[in-house]
User: Fold these one by one.
Assistant:
Number 1:
Amino acid sequence: MNFNRRNFLTFLGVSLGGTLLGSTGKKDWMLFSDEAIAGTSPNYASKTIEGLSFKPVKLPIPLTTERMTSQQEKLAYSSYEVKDDLILPEGYTYDVIGAWGDRLGNSRFGYNNDYLSYVETSPNEGFLTINFEYISGKTWMQTYPIVIGKSLPFEEVKAVAAKSQGKINAFALSNNNPLKAKIREISAEGLIDQGIGVMSLRHNPDGSWERTFSSSDRRITGISGLKDGNYLKTTGPAVAIFTKTNKEGYEDGLGDKIIGTFQNCAGGTTPWGTVLSAEENFQDQVPETVMADGSSLDPSQKPFIINDKEVDGRANVFGLAGNKYGWMVEVDPTNPNDYGTKHTWLGRFRHEAFGLKVIAGKQLAVYSGCDRRGGHLYKFVSTQEVSNPQSKDNSRLFEDGMLYGAKFNPDGTGRWIALNPNTPVDPVLPSQVVGKEDVGMVPLPNPDRSAGSIVQITSDAEVIEYKKQFPTLGDLYKGDRTEQQGAILIDAHFAANAAGITCTARPEDTVVAPDGNLYITFTSGYPGSDGGPDKSIFKGPNGESPYEFGWIVSLREDNEEPAAMTFRWNILALGGEPCEGGFGFCNPDNLAIDSNDNIWLLTDISTSKNNKEITSRTENGKSVSQTQISGIFGNNSAWVIPTSGANAGTAYPFAIGPMETEMTGPCFSSDRKTLFLSIQHPGEKNGMREDMAMEMRKFDMRTTTNKEFMQERQVPLGSNWPNKQVNQPPRPAVVAIRRTDSRIITA
């Protein structure tokens, strides 16, 4: 048993023998059958494990759960073939229920589907709400004419943009300029492929799903409201900024109305049946930083960008105001007239997921992370209390409360710091965070408040002077108290840095378990252009920092109170190779908890690292970085971690994604017989796979006992999923996974 599993068991209250302390009466899990450790054939990896409802799939790396000797691992893993398909355990299958370009409402199924929420409205019928996060520029341009059936002027606009480093301030072009019209056409199509979709479904007796094409089916796109009047609504203090006159920055003339939603990544579902959608990397389309009064920078600060790999800055040509994106959007899938409400009390940052704590008689708590290097963990607490958790009246609770950021202490304690005008300025120190070339960096609101935006601080001495200049957050932001509060929420990430809230390691998912415990995935501990994580908190199994492979962290509020201002936290599991104390996964992202309290985990290894060859782990006599060896983990994968019985705290691989994809949005049907998954960006790096092309690559591998061996791996180049036929375009899609025997997924 490695340290990680021991940590997990201690937290869960499980004895080393595998019995849950204070047992709930559930069937205990058996550890390993004799069959699982018998034989020497290279094909016996991932044999059936008693107590699991599935036989784990075989990954490219050896796992301790297979109970092999080093020699057996070398034999079994000396070669490996990567498949361009969704690989599931024996006895499981999947159906594609929607793919990019399919009709959806009065528009189409968007690109790079992410978070999924199934809300049942009657037995075997309901609505699947789908986030559409972003477009993968290269592959989207390559396959758009094939899938959508029309052409766009990509090459013409690229040729013009190439003269100015791929950038064009289309907003400044005259309306009768033909170039502006072409950019507008491309940008509109890209924004249509982002946002939110609502799809009605029926579950058939044979286990399959079919669309029912309800009148409530609809798309909420990146340009909803631009022509159709279906603007998004807003609540909370930022409304005072949207509607104020004499803004210091850009004025879009729309008041509190908002055109569209985009970069919709993860989300959450309320007990009363509404869906929360997270606007994440909005900075790809609009300016992120703002003026001191919370107003937007001019659209010229995020020009239209087009080259062979990307098509971004698509809001530029429409003059969209940057401060209106980066919010939580609430949608009622059953209301065909609901095009979303942005609740600004939850803050504007690169939102990832919403974990809700909803208890009758208590204040509502909503947890969300900012997915960036150096991003923060946040909690919104409502002013009023929950009455009936199933009542749709609870949506009003999002309209008044307070946003807090988490301050983690190395001893496993922590506290919540309010983001309001009275909060003292006590910035995160650059020396506290992991930095490039050992130089930490913290971005703070620009001390020249008339200029707005931010500055990057790299010395602790600069922070000391900063604190002297600005005693409280209210001194950083302009206006009356309501306007200051609105500006702080609009500038939440940089205000949080100024308040001293802990910089973390890309918090990607926040899930509240039935027992009230919050699980958080932190995907990667390496620094980047945005900053880095706190080096005293985010460490590897041997205390190393930076640590690339990620963490699962638990957080429990003191006294189990949603509105508690203090908490305790614990690292439950580490990503990484088993030989180094990791669980075998890399870069944990989405989480789900099934009805048996098993934790389901999906990984988020960046496309550029999927199956990237590594022939040696040393270079010029030094070990290469962890990011350079991430290719050993292969395609992204899905895992199950039992939380009770003898297998508690052990991770088992359940699925492997197609080529150059990320699996996202795990969601179970109410009868527990279906697992919905999003498969996004197939072929993101190499595009459409041509003539079943593939190549052999070599990998410097390690056994679970740290013995070196070389693996030859056959890797497809690009993707043809989900069609899987020669020279067919890859299409992001949503699948329904089920057992062929029609039993419960995790029975």
Number 2:
Amino acid sequence: MRLAGQKGFNDRQDIVAKNISLQAGNKIIVQKIVNEQEHIHASFFTDSSFHRLLLYLGIMINRNLQGEYIEERKRASNSKYHMAQDMMKYIVQYCHITTTEDEVQFLSELLARARYLKNKAVQNNVVQIQMITRQFIEKISDELGVNLNDDYDFFESLSNHLASIFSAKEVSYPENSVIDEIVAENQEVVLAVNKRKTIVQSCMKRELAEKDLEYVAVHVCAALERKKNKGIAFHVIVACHAGIGTSRLLLEKLKTHFQFQIVDVVSSHEAKNLEEGKADFVISTIPLEGCKLDYVVVSPMLNDEDYVRVGNKIDALKSSRRLPSRIEEQEITAKGMIERLTPIVWEAVPDQAAVLMKKMRKAIRDYFRQSIEAEAEIFSPYLHHLLSPSHITLDVECRDWREAVKISGEKLMAEGYIEKRYIDAMIRNIEEHGPYVVLSPGFAVPHEGLEAGSIKVGMHLIRLKTPVNFGNEEFDPVEFVCCLSAVDHKTHLKAFFNLVNMLQTGDFKEKLRRCDTPEEASKIIEMYEYEVMG
């Protein structure tokens, strides 16, 4: 979260911002674009420059939507031209505008004049933490007898939490009665986390404290609540004390994780006028004085503690009275339509499904103009985007695991995804930390830290003619080696998450084993990826 700049600047910005009618969804997307480009280009704005840039981009988008473009600019190269190009490319795509080369040139000049932080701490071993997080989720699912492997938010939030405490000698947790209450009521989860803590411990530089484990347990409890209440169709009103953008963001998060029928979205001061019976309860961002309906208070970003709070409210309502059965009206959304059509297309025309679905997804999203639902996919390519036919090599001859890692890495190096030193670093990583990169029987994903020579996000999969051992007694020998190059903690995450879930699908590896060409392998990957995404 950005810190506020100087008061005078903020006051001036607020006055201008109030006169910019940029859609709430676009505001969220533009901020995300800027955030991601900061990481990709390793150029981090000061707070004042960040806010000025957002303000300019809002003005530019509104101007372009009205068909007004900046005057002709003299072409001059500068160090931020490529950053401006990348930023504008995504703004054009996701804010539905057209632009000109002069707009790109002017934006690059603004970026060149902006002020940047001298450095930014980067968690160099985030991919290692994410892989260990994924293994922990698999084991905790077995321990609790509940499949939590398909909960992307659980995976993302827990890996981010572990990354935040990875290098800390000791974490000072604030007093929190909600956490204490959750832990007291979910001792079986706490015991399961303790039983499987050695998986997480393997990537830590210190012993996990009791409080560390309790916070991990809260993440698990939140995932359990999401799964348990996924199919419950309560009638809910959303009350928010902030603007429409915050309300929409909270609404989309709720709809993602709960099958609520959202009957109304109101400002918090209107809640006292709500009549009994209009909804089962209210979800609010602040306490509601004089509200006649039950309500639960959550943060606008809907964190793990909030999921547990909402789940507890649902449990209390179910226990207190018999709710009427309902036949819910289902809201038609771009995401829902795509999910319904995808398996039909794959079954009807498997040879043309990939191309057809790409065109259909664009047409459906353009028709619905539901940019908020598409937001999570903007900078998170799917696995099949990274493993196109040119990034798959079949029947490679290797003498041992080192040579397999080397060959897989050299394919990425040849296309400019990594530097040569990245390959040596991957091998050293396995020598020092063991074969944790073997994620499933016969399948390894070697990688290294963010500052070890990765240039851009990429993968290259090789299928070995003769499997080799990595030293993992449970999963050796390894037949598939997929080198991963990551540039930040986020961009590769959706592809990696989908890959791990696909590896749990019974015949996925068997289909890869039997295919004859990289093109066939790529189609198999895309088909199974859409299956695991539901």
Number 3:
Amino acid sequence: MNDQKRRTRGNGGLVAICIAVSGLIAGLKRIPLTNRIGDDGNAFWGIAYDTYLLFFLICGYSVQTVAASMISSRRARGQYRNARRVWLILLILAAGGGLIAGLLMFFLSGWISGGLFKTLPAQTAIQFMAPGLLFSSLLGLYRGYFQGMGSDVPTALSRFVEELAGLFFMLHMASRLGDYGKQVGALLRDPGYEQAFGAAGGLLGGVIGEAIAVVFLFILFVMLQVSFRRKEKRDAGKGTESYGRITRIAVNASFPVMLTGLTVHGCFILDQILYLVLMPKAAGNVTNWGIYTGKYRILSSLPVALVTAVCSALVPSLSAAHSARNMGRTRERAYLLIRTSLILSLPLAIYFATMADALLPALFSVGDMKVAASLLRRGSIAIVLQCVAVALSCILQAMDKKRNLLFNAVGALILHAVLLYFLLSVGGQGILGVVNGVIVLYAACLIFHLLSLRRLISLRAGWGRMLGTPAICAGVSGLVLFFMAMLLKGKIADNILSVLGFVVGGGLYFVLILALHGITERDLKAIPGGGVILSVARLLRLM
């Protein structure tokens, strides 16, 4: 029993490390890519990737969730033959859906790039991204299979393999195809070909990373078939499900997951369509979209990824408390998620807002830094709102309130779409209008989630301290960073100033949040990695 516990703990540590490293690679790999393909290349990359995202949400987004739930339920009942049938049906649906969607994306690339987005050079990038639909669908299937069989290790390892291979091939292919595009552009006297082919090469590198991850999971799948066949022979199930019944269950289970995905991720696609359609004649509109998707969205996603990882780790304990009908424990855990999201997002948002002028040149070597800095300063509000909205979403998810999540997301998306249309068509705000629309999107989502939770668990007390302490600590560290940036900008290198600002601002915030009891010892023990922070705090006699 002790050996089993040690193995489980060891597997959990491996999964956590793989997820953390994979997330770090995924968040940072586009920085060197941006330095290779520039702002226009980032625009082409964003158009192709969001087009891929739309097709994937329809054809393959639900595969992993459906496979995990259907195989897990049959495995729990000892019905391994039915689990095999589920696998075969989902394999046909995933491979067929991915292949059809990939072909549609490839052959519609001209209309999508030139007709819908008014940006014909993005056609090559869309075509190179199309095969990824097949590989991503198969990846979801294999990951769902292993999760359904009770192991998250293959999923975590495959993500690491995918991101590491994708990073290598992305940079390599972007450079190779970018050089080829430069030669084509020299012949046709159009410098845009270099960035268009560079973006296509970067996307192709990501597709190669997915293909390598599929091969990796296929090898693991084959290796485990002997054990699986042995379990099939001891099948305790009394009935064999028909393929028709399994297909109907899979399709019915896929629809709500697909709808939720379209609602949650639809804002990226919607923003792209509205901006490129409503602003077709704006000077530098493609370049500005590249700045938005290749600089602002990269940096703004990092705090969100951190908060998502931490809050997701707290969901099981909240779900257990809710299942046990322990309202006091449920409310306590819900407050912890909200407080954690604020404690993590506020200092990072303040850092981005105050150090944007130094941070962007330190990370990126090409493109317009002034526009990017203005977007990052304005969007720092959206970062906090999105992080808190993520925490509230995790609370609703733990309480199994998927319908509330869906309705709230739909309402926020509709409000966002209407406002963004007027900001672009009437207000003429351009790319800043997109950021303003995103602020409204997450503010609306946050408010709708709060209203849902207020009815469910009566979130009323403690808001002043929960909001006030992190806001005061972040505000003080922000003032120090602001004056530091004013005094040192131009006197030392931007990369040194950025690192110095992060160390000074982060250190000051850390001391203040502990000194003012913005987070307790009990909270730190519950948060992943909080034990390390607690040890440092005790060493410094702050706790």
Number 4:
Amino acid sequence: MADIEIKKCRECGNEFSLTDEDVKLLGALRVDTTYECTLCNWKRILSFFVFGRFRKTTSALSGKSIITNFPESTQFPLYERGEWVSDAWDPMEYGTEYESTRSFIAQFIELEKRVPHPHQSGTKNTNCDWCDDVWNCKNCYLCRSLLDCEGVSYGYRTFACKNSIDLAFCFKTEESYDSVYCFNCYRVNYSFNVRDSIESDFLYDCRNVKNCFMSWNLRNAQYCILNTQYTKEEYFEKRKTFDTESFENVEKLKDLFWKNISAHAVHRENYNTKTSDSNGNFLSECKNCEDCFFLDKSENCRHVFRGFETKDGIYTVATLGEKCVFSSVDGYVYETAFTSHCSHCRYSAFLDYCEECEYCFGCVGLRKKKYCILNTQYTKEEYEKKREEIILHMKERGEWGSFFPYSAGYCGYNLTLAQWYFPETKEHILELGGIWEDGGSQDVEGISGNDVPDRIGEVPDDFYAQPIICPKSGWKFNIAPHELEFYRRYQIPLPHNHFDVRMMERFRPLTSFRSNKGRCVFCEKEITHFYPDEWEYKKIACVECYQNQIM
């Protein structure tokens, strides 16, 4: 595929290429080009995915008590979600006329800061007040991005999981703890990239295993420790020698586990499964997807960072979207451009928190509207004429081709998902016109996480009432009653750090999206992999050699 144009990113200054396929897909959505490279586009889009700390506040409409992860510094009013979708207020009352002498983006941001937003995303939940972006879930606590889950605490992007704690990017996993990228698992702890496995701890890249410990690259195995086969009786006797009821010892086991993974495990050049004519990482059941990551059941996508059942998308973080460009955390959208947190919208551009709208441009908080610009109603003919006028002005100002600026952010960059994947300094974000949260003062009374009882058997019954100060972040947290019961049931030591700090550390394997050139350790064929040099992985293999060695 030939490059059609070499451009210089106006954000980071690095050169990047737009291929003819990029331009074709952009052009189909009437976007001629982009002024930023892929990484800078992703950073901007992910900075609109709030990952702040949950807090209690009140609805600006009714005074009703609500729980949100928007910080106190958020400029727009917050309404309780049920009130926000009701007829108790009218977002059209905030409408304004477009001023051709001023930047459209500036006018859009002014509108965005005035129009109320819902305190949380998600519907059809029961007892999930301390969550955000959760859907059809029950009894979940301090989670983000869940679907069809029950009894999950401190989870991120988990689907159909039950009765588990500290999961990230897991599907159909139950009674498990501290695991990432696990599918169809039961009672699997401290593990990464495991499928169809049960009653095991410290696994890496294992399939269909049972009663295994501290092992990697296993297939259809049982009673293995450090990849050594034991009889059933030998396994359980040997397993007793690994003390996993002590926090200090579990931390040592984690270090030992990852040292073994680095030195001995065979690492496939990517984590893609059931994928064809595609490149990137963490792709599942995808076809014709170029430079995409964390994408499932999708087709004909380019530079998509996260998605599910997305088709013909480019520069998006979207679920169930088709023909969308520059999309952040949208769902069920069709032929949209430059949108954030929108659902069931079509044929629209520059929308923020809109639902069931079509043929709208530069609108915020609208529901079931048509032919609106800046929350002002027009006829079809007036809308089409003014829309073309605005796009022409935006092209002249270099605004048409870039996602919302950092200045339009809902909160500080450091309280968004972007900071997890693209860590930035306060100084640089402020230079880019963005926002940063300094945190402010907080009550720091409590015991240090370093003073939490080492062994689960030493924890008193009323420990859930004890405030704990995370030694790494200074943030305060508690061990919830249901959480303590879970740890006791499975003899898991209490965590010493804040749940968001634990999640950030757990994210380590999910940040491998920068491609590296290397050679297969077996056949020496040149490969493209996603493992940073500092991870010191010794055995990185091409797909064919990996399958020959492992499968």
